[in-house]
C-alpha cells in the first residue's frame, strides 16, 4: 500500500554515528526509498551520541540513529533535562561486541571468566570504555561483567568514548577494553590491538540495538513525515537483509568517508555472519547483525524499551522504579509503526511484549520489570 498522505516536512535530516548499523538510514536515502514516500532523507554524520541527543533536542536533527538507552535516559532526565522522546522503530538486532586489549589476551584474559581470574590475581584499576552512560553498550558491558562476578561500578573504571575513537584509544593504551558496535571490534582485530571476548548476541540473542528516534514534539507535529521515515527505512532494511549481495553492496557504500570511513573489509565479514576472535578461532554466527528478518527486528516492542529502564534502575541511574509500562507505551510509537508497516506490507507481531533468555539464564518478558530489576545479585 503506497503512502497517499502529504508529509508535513519533505526534507528530513537524520543523524547517525559511524557504525555499520546506520546502514538502513543511509540506504533509504541512497536507493530512493525515501522519495517513494514523499520525503528526502539527508543523513548527517555526527561525532558522538551526546551530539545526537543534543541536536535532537534543539531541532537541528529531525530524527536519528540512536541508542535505545539514550532515548530512555533523556525521557527520564538521566544526565540531561527530561524531554518527551519517541522511538519510531527498531533499526537492528545483534552485531555489537566486547573487545579486550591484546595485552590482556596475552596475560590470559580472553573471555569473561578468564578476565575475572586475572583481575583477582592482579588487582589494579582496569579501564573499560562504552559509548554513552545510559546507552546499549554501557548496559551490555555492565551485564557481561556482572554475569562473571565483576562489579562494573566498583571493580572497573568506566570511560565514555565515541565509537570511531575506540580503536585509537585502545591502541594508545588508554583502556583495557571496550564495548561498541561494528566495525570497530573487527577493526581492532585487523590492527592487532584487540580480541573479541564476547559478542552482544552471546549476552542476549536477538537483542534490540539501535532505534530511529525523534523528540515527541516532532512526531506530534509531523505524524505523516514520521510514518514516511519509518516506511522508507523499513524498505531499506528489507533490501539489506534480502541477500548477501545486497549486504556487500551496502558495505561498499557505507565504508566511504561520508559514512563509516573505514575499509570495506572491516565491515563485510561480520555482516555476513563470518566471525573470528583474533586468537585463531572462527565461526558462523547464527545471530549476526539483522536489519529486518521479515519485520521481526523492527517492531518497537514495549518490553525492549522497558529492559533498558530495568538496567538503568539496576545500576542506580534511576533512583526509584518508574512506571515502566506507562513510560514505554508513551515512547514506543507502535501505532505509527503499524501504519507504516501496512504501507510496506511488513508483518507485525500480535503482542507488544516478547520473551528472551539472557546469558545468565534470566528470562526477560516485560511482565514484572520492577521485580526483574531488583533480582540481580550485583547491582547498585
UniProtKB/TrEMBL annotation:
Q: Which InterPro entries match?
A: NrtA/CpmA_ABC-bd_dom
Q: Which SUPFAM superfamilies match?
A: Periplasmic binding protein-like II
Is-annotated flag, keyword Signal?
Answer: yes
- Which keywords are on file for this protein? Cell inner membrane, Cell membrane, Membrane, Signal, Transport
Do the record's keywords include DNA-binding?
no
* Single GO cellular component term: endomembrane system
Q: What is this protein called?
A: Nitrate ABC transporter substrate-binding protein
